[in-house]
Design brief:
236 residues, alpha/beta, Rossmann fold, 6-stranded parallel beta sheet, 10 helices, 14% strand, globular
Length: 236
């Protein structure tokens, strides 16, 4: 969660592109239950929000590249970066502290419609399927789209209750260097092959009956969190 709680107005949304509420405050779980309209109020009603989850260890220009592409291609109002407290599939060793990763994600995002948040800490969820269940319950009038790279489409069958993700929200998958072909021939893509949306229907993806997913052959970005960590470890 954030290091310093931020004051939040009860109803900050007065227009489709009004200010985004802070989603990861120092109030922690208490904010979920008692926050002034933070999770149960009308301020997100009617918005379409892309959710990009991950460790963000660290956040980099590739995350921002995908988010900006998604905002335009899918007609999103917002993108929320869900900075995970600890990815169950990744070792804790070498993982920077959550406040550090969250602060860097906010610096990298640098866009009024991209919000880096530690909301999973407040919700008390570790797995994507559980996080989506909580978000759709607490924001019943907000349309969510799960955003992920082709590498995650390939490995998503390893995720807990992974089919619930496709049943909960529409999914948008973005091409990543070297992963696209293997991802499209993988278990998840083949299971939902008949539910894949053509490029002509992507603007309405958030309103489609689930499961519904799209694969974007977007311009590639070469940034890699692993490469950045290795470069930082090597020093100047």
């Amino acid at each position: 969660m954030d290091l310093v709680p931020q004051p939040i107005a009860p109803h900050p949304f007065h227009a489709p592109h009004g200010p985004l509420p802070s989603l990861g405050t120092g109030e922690g779980k208490a904010a979920v239950a008692k926050g002034p309209g933070l999770y149960s109020g009308p301020h997100c009603a009617g918005l379409t929000v892309g959710l990009l989850g991950g460790s963000f260890n660290p956040a980099h220009a590739g995350h921002r590249h995908i988010s900006l592409f998604a905002l335009k291609a899918l007609g999103l109002d917002r993108v929320w970066w869900l900075v995970s407290p600890q990815n169950p599939l990744k070792p804790a060793a070498g993982m920077a502290a959550l406040p550090e990763r969250l602060a860097e994600a906010r610096r990298v995002a640098a866009h009024p419609r991209i919000e880096a948040t530690s909301i999973e800490t407040a919700l008390g969820t570790r797995y994507t399927a559980d996080t989506l269940a909580e978000l759709t319950r607490r924001f019943p009038k907000t349309r969510f789209v799960w955003l992920m790279g082709a590498d995650n489409l390939r490995q998503i069958p390893l995720w807990r209750h992974w089919t619930r993700i496709f049943e909960s929200v529409p999914v948008a998958v973005f091409a990543r260097p070297t992963y696209s072909l293997s991802a499209l021939s993988g278990q998840a893509a083949q299971r939902y092959i008949r539910r894949r949306v053509s490029k002509h229907g992507v603007k309405g993806l958030a309103r489609r009956k689930r499961p519904a997913w799209v694969f974007f052959r977007n311009p590639l970005h070469t940034a890699s969190a692993t490469a950045i960590r290795q470069a930082r470890a090597a020093g100047p």
